[in-house]
Inverse folding.
């Protein structure tokens, strides 16, 4: 009987302990599940020492997880701030080369409109060159870089972009391998390089021609032509003409470089358009007479003054009249000036009845060294820089210049200058940044 009682008591104790253990594990499990599900509420498990220690351990676990979570959150937002602030496009790929992360610049460079996350890189970019570079980097487990010419399609149409692509495998302990693709759009840099190269070629060509002529005549003179006074005189005249051309070219190049490198300091003072145009006509009077051009000055004397650099404004209209005289047609050539105020601008039209400019050349006439009437320009001492200087002067004054021309009937150049001066320029001043480039 005593034995049976003993067994029952022991069994009862075991059962009680099992129930306690079960309750403890249940609470423990509940607490861990809450931790895992992110509710992170502190578990309450009885008053015993074990319960207290378990509670403390779980509380410390909760604290550590919370800390890790907020640290990961801060790191994630730092990473996203860095990714969004850089100009380079960044793609992070998983081990199947699917996109897991992408920044705004990447979307912009490749004109991607909807989120590409989860899709294969090759399907999104459609660039076999980038895909090959990614595969190479993964197989060789090393960084690969290359510059490619990539064609993107956007709402505006197709555009070709020079992209410097760099692919690097990301090594991480215990995580599946990923790959980072960084894309730098170097289209603008390559474009400016091409413009600079072209500029140097043009300048060298422009300088080489008159120099070669001067040298040729010098050699002929030295070989004996100097003894024939009449021949020597004509040679010297030709040399002097080409010397002057070189001089003009260097002057124009210096003017352009001052504008383009932003070192031109305008001397702003009240400028009266009537006075400026009268001066320009006076300066070119001998040529006007020799070409037989009829000048019409439709410029009221009571027009308001504009704050501007008088020397540069005079140079602007000098170049326009000089061109009109250079390209004037032989019968009844006429150049007319018309000035008036429109809104907050002074508008000056300079029209001629010369050969005009072919439609397809019109968008380019303000570019450096762009010539349509090449021979006539060179024969008349043109440098191919006159209209480019005109454009620069208008832009630094916050204005602009445009061309209207019907081929065979003449040209009309319209110059618009703000009545309130260069500092009152509107943001739409052709978007041209005069100081930044050797562009046009
Ligand atoms: P250039 O020194 O050759 O005159 P510009 O920059 O002044 O250089 O002009 C560029 C080109 O535009 C000229 O070579 C010429 O072919 C054309 N052009 C300029 N003004 C006129 C005009 N009034 N009539 C016809 N063509 C013109």
């Amino acid at each position: 009987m005593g034995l049976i009682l003993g067994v029952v008591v022991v069994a009862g104790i075991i059962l009680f302990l099992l129930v306690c253990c079960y309750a403890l594990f249940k609470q423990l499990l509940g607490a861990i599940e809450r931790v895992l599900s992110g509710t992170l509420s502190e578990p309450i498990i009885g008053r015993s020492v074990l319960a207290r220690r378990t509670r403390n351990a779980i509380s410390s676990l909760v604290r550590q997880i919370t800390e890790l979570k907020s640290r990961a959150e801060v790191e994630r937002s730092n990473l996203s701030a860095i990714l969004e602030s850089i100009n380079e496009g960044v793609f992070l790929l998983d081990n199947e080369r699917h996109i897991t992360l992408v920044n705004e610049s990447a979307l912009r460079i490749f004109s991607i409109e909807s989120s590409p996350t989860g899709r294969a890189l090759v399907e999104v970019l459609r660039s076999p060159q980038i895909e090959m570079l990614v595969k190479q980097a993964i197989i060789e487990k090393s960084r690969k870089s290359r510059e490619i010419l990539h064609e993107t399609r956007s709402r505006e149409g197709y555009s070709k972009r020079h992209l410097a692509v760099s692919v690097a495998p990301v090594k991480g302990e215990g995580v599946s391998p990923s790959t980072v693709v960084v894309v730098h759009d170097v289209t603008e840099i390559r474009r400016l390089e091409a413009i600079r190269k072209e500029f140097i070629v043009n300048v060298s060509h422009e300088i080489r021609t008159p120099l070669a002529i001067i040298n040729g005549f010098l050699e002929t003179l030295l070989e004996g032509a100097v003894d024939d006074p009449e021949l020597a005189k004509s040679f010297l005249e030709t040399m002097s003409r080409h010397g002057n051309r070189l001089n003009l070219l260097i002057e124009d190049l210096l003017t352009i470089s001052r504008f383009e490198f932003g070192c031109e300091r305008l001397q702003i003072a009240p400028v009266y358009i009537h006075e400026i145009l009268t001066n320009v006509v006076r300066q070119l009077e001998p040529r006007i007479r020799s070409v037989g051009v009829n000048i019409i000055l439709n410029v009221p004397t009571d027009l308001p003054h504009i704050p501007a650099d008088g020397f540069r404004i005079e140079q602007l209209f000098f170049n326009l009249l000089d061109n009109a005289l250079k390209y004037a047609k032989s019968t009844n050539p006429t150049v007319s000036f018309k000035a008036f105020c429109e809104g907050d601008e002074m508008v000056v039209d300079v029209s001629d009845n010369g050969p005009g400019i072919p439609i397809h050349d019109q968008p380019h006439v303000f570019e450096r060294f762009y010539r349509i009437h090449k021979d006539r320009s060179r024969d008349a001492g043109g440098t191919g820089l006159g209209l480019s200087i005109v454009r620069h002067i208008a832009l630094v004054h916050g204005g602009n210049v445009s061309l209207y021309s019907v081929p065979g009937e003449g040209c009309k150049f319209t110059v618009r200058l703000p009545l309130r001066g260069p500092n009152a320029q509107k943001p739409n001043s052709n978007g041209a940044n005069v100081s930044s480039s050797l562009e046009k």
The longest strand covers residues 157-170. The chain has four domains: 24-85, 86-185, 190-264, 265-440. DSSP finds twelve helices and twelve strands in the chain.
